[in-house]
Amino acid sequence: MAKQRVMVVGGGLAGLAATMKLAELGVAVDLMSLVPVKRSHSVCAQGGINAVNDQTRQLGDNEWKHLDDTVYGGDFLQHQPLVHEMTLWGPKVIDLMDRLGVRFNRTSEGFIDRRRFGGTLYKRTAFAGATTGQQLLYALDEQVRRWEVDGLVTKYEYWDFLGPILDEQGVCRGCVAQDLMSMEIRSFAADAVIVATGGCGLIYGRSTMSTVCTGSAASRCFQAGAKYANAEFIQVHPTAIPGADKLRLMSESARGEGGRVWVPRKPQDPRDPNQIPEADRYYFLEQRYPTYGNLVPRDIATREIFNVCVHEGLSVETDRQCVYLDLTHIDRRELDRKLGGILEIYEKFQGVDPRDVPMKIFPAVHYSMGGLWVDYERKADGRLVAGSPKNQVTNIPGLYAIGECDYQYHGANRLGANSLLSCIFSGLFVAPGVKSWLGTVPGGAAAEQPAKLFSDAHAAQKSRQDAIFKRPTSHDNPYDLHFNLGNVMTKAATVVRYNNNLREALQVVSDLAERANRASVVDRGDWTNQNVVFAKAFEDMLPVAKSILLGALQRDECRGAHFKPDFAPPGIDATEPAEKRRQAEAWCDKFEANNRQWLKTTVATCSPDGDPVLTYEAVDTTLVPPRPRLYGLVGAEAIEEVWKERARKKNQTPPPDSVVASM
Amino acid sequence: MTASHQSPADAPRTFDVRVLRQDGPGGASYWERHRVPYEHDMNVISVLQRIAAQSRSVEGDEVAPVAWECCCLEEVCGSCTMLVNGKVRQACTALVDRLLVDEPEGIELRPMGKFPVVRDLVVERQRMFRALEKVRAWIDVDGYYDAGPGPRQSPEDQEVAYPLSQCMSCGCCLEACPQYTKVELTRDPGESDADFQARQDQTYDSAFVGAHAISQAVLFNSHPTGTYNAGKRLDALTQEGGIQICGNAQNCVAVCPKEIPLTTSIAKAGRQTTWHQLKKWFDQ
Ligand SMILES: Cc1cc2nc3c(=O)[nH]c(=O)nc-3n(C[C@H](O)[C@H](O)[C@H](O)COP(=O)(O)OP(=O)(O)OC[C@H]3O[C@@H](n4cnc5c(N)ncnc54)[C@H](O)[C@@H]3O)c2cc1C
Ligand code: SF4
Ligand code: SF4
Ligand code: FES
Prior knowledge:
The structure holds two protein chains of two kinds. Chain A is an alpha+beta fold. Helix content of chain A is 38%, strand content 15%. Chain A has 17 helices and 21 strands. In chain A, strands 13-12-17-16-14-15 form a six-stranded antiparallel beta sheet. A five-stranded parallel beta sheet of chain A has the order 6-2-1-10-19. Chain A has a four-stranded antiparallel beta sheet with strand order 18-11-20-21. By secondary structure, chain B is of the alpha+beta class. Chain B folds into two domains: 14-119, Beta-grasp domain (Ubiquitin-like (UB roll), Roll); 125-283, Fumarate Reductase Iron-sulfur Protein, Chain B, domain 2 (Orthogonal Bundle). Chain B has helices at residues 44-54, 96-102, 126-134, 155-164, 172-176, 193-206, 211-221, 230-238, 251-255, 262-283, and strands at residues 14-22, 29-37, 81-84, 87-90, 107-110, 117-119, 122-123. In chain B, strand 6 and strand 7 (122-123) form a beta hairpin. The interface between A and B is large, with 78 and 74 residues. Residues 176-179, 211, 246-252, 263, 266 of chain B line the site of one iron/sulfur cluster.
């Protein structure tokens, strides 16, 4: 049999981790990326990476609690054995990255320092200055470069993945891709293809993501028959700096250090913010949540800021949504000491000193929890079968997905600093499984498949591009249509969702798809034609955009990042004990009934015309029984009491204290 | 810092952007003028996005969108290096309001001069990554199986190393360096991918490695495990194209967007290579 090769598409944390592990296992890898892998989006992550550690362990933490925090934060929508395995690997992943030379911050004794992130009580987060993602990515990039020198890895940087190649049995035998410089379209034979192409924030126009995060690669797999799951779960971060090109993250610590969020009471008050007296300011978070003030949890902050601008019309500016995040009442020196780094980011991009002038911020699309549907193989004890070819495989044999572009690990909502972990973990974990697949792949090596398989796939992509070039000049261009798409999606499918808006948006996106099919490109040349590359990426955003909208429309409930006011369960208001008890019982009944209907993975398949068809799949919640998230709800104590009684009756066992991991 | 120039009242309605374009490698370059409607909070990237959407020059001719590179838009990926009003820098942190204050006439964009132009503002920087191979900028770990934690490091060592580890391979330091000269190869007819790559690597290796790579060698030599292979890195730095070429002009450190102490690294590398040479000489 000819020598087997694996194609890894995407060189962020996930793709690089998979590449280096495969190389270690002796597998030859082709690594493809739109940008030099060192420039992948993962460099943007600032905060850190989570794992249980010796210090938290002594305070009562363990991997099971990390699992519990993750699934609770994700509103129980993830398959728990995967999360379990990931948390067990967490400490080992940090150790490995440490050995690879990541310059994590240190304690005075020379151990890795930790900080606390949202959604947990423990200091699990390791960090390297304010550039953890960059540091982790570089360490993996360096290892892959080492393998490149050894000849086991071949890089194809500045290549665009156009789609997988499937044989008659539906087995993935390689992919078609395009050189972004020479515009050559080429078929690559591969015995397995691993897609690690990150998130799809660009569907929303501007987000906190990088410009390559179009989701086009995942969409091309989707359109080729791969299932796409939980598309509607998109995380929105409450505080980002609006920019004409990108919405840049403003860390939660600004509020942690005393930052106050407000808008002028008079809509679009033209006065300089520093001249607006207290009485004319509306500190809406402090007023509505007197206990938590500006430090309400992320999703609540996001919703309130959105609401005050979009529904109450109190945005600071007329032509753009934003509120003030004010630090000007805090002493300069204190600000420099505690927030120096992040204030410099604001200053760098806004040209304004946030120590003197209140910052303008607005929520921004930040992370795609959904993505390509992938499988796994579990054992009875709730662990995964290491080296199983089923781990991380899509429904197309031989086509794998890892990192942000798969749908696993984060359920309905991702906890801060868990993504870097899931990316590296899934990359390392997929490798032995892919190697097993190589040993059993039916019908010989990919390179020995009939030449026609590859030439047909090539021809199909070639004719797609030719068709775009042949379109008569139209007044629509992909850049303007993309701008429209961003607006529609941001309005209908971010923070607060209503069915009539979603229905309308679906119609608009369908119209955009029609127009996209006629939109012409100005550049019809065959050298570094970014115009046609973007045109294709834009067209491929649409099936995913539709899946997000349809998924959100059909899911008549609130779960994690998916919030529909029309289906939000009200709290309980009775004061008389018996009535209160009755209401709490009823609340819990409703919660259980809702879970029976909606604690399900949304699975989209793409019809030939690009419209998604949805089905729903059960979620493996066998390790941690689902329980309600009652944060901020009226009557929470009474509900919790009832819930606990029910759990005891069902004889749900308390979590074990500690589980030993092996790598 | 004042924010007065930001007020929409005295902002221009439009402004002009002159771009030095080139259709392909080795081709002639030409200037093209674009007029862009002013918006708040624009940077050079958003200007290029508007230019792409307009696809029309000031003269009203339909033109292909200008090609450029970008990714993170936060100055951490190193993609978007170009000459903005003559200065090498990241386009994503080049704010229009500031540029117009300094240069009310408009904005001028040119590709980097030390790397071959691919098209318009896109240049070929593979040579930078080749330099990282040359100096073995990695830790030679045994493997990726669990082997416990890495070596302990003092917070002081971390504070010295961390800035160096932020190098994003943007190439600003090389553009500014008088000793770093452009290497541009064209493929011979009939030359295979592999042959061209090999010829390219060889040519790159004999030309100056550059400040970024010297600094990376210093970074890895300072790591407790990295130090095991310090000798190999120092050998690389004393070969043809090595540290001896640096004329200590200090231009590099002045333009590094990450404020990496490059001249400190170069001085350290200089001392390390001298000792290394002497030691080798005595050991003979
Ligand atoms: C501002 C910001 C801050 C964050 N901070 C944190 C944090 O502190 N902690 C945390 O855990 N998470 C954080 N996240 C999330 C985390 O950074 C990402 O989820 C993670 O880096 C994704 O990694 P990845 O390997 O899946 O993909 P990416 O790093 O996005 O890489 C995708 C790769 O695929 C390639 N690619 C894409 N499309 C194609 C195509 N069509 N053809 C060829 N190649 C293609 C790209 O070139 C790239 O190499 C943050 C995210 C953002 C936006
Ligand atoms: S100090 Fe050396 S590397 Fe830096 S600019 Fe001068 S000659 Fe170039
Ligand atoms: S040293 Fe600075 S200027 Fe040079 S490549 Fe690195 S980040 Fe860029
Ligand atoms: S786009 Fe990444 S540095 Fe400018």
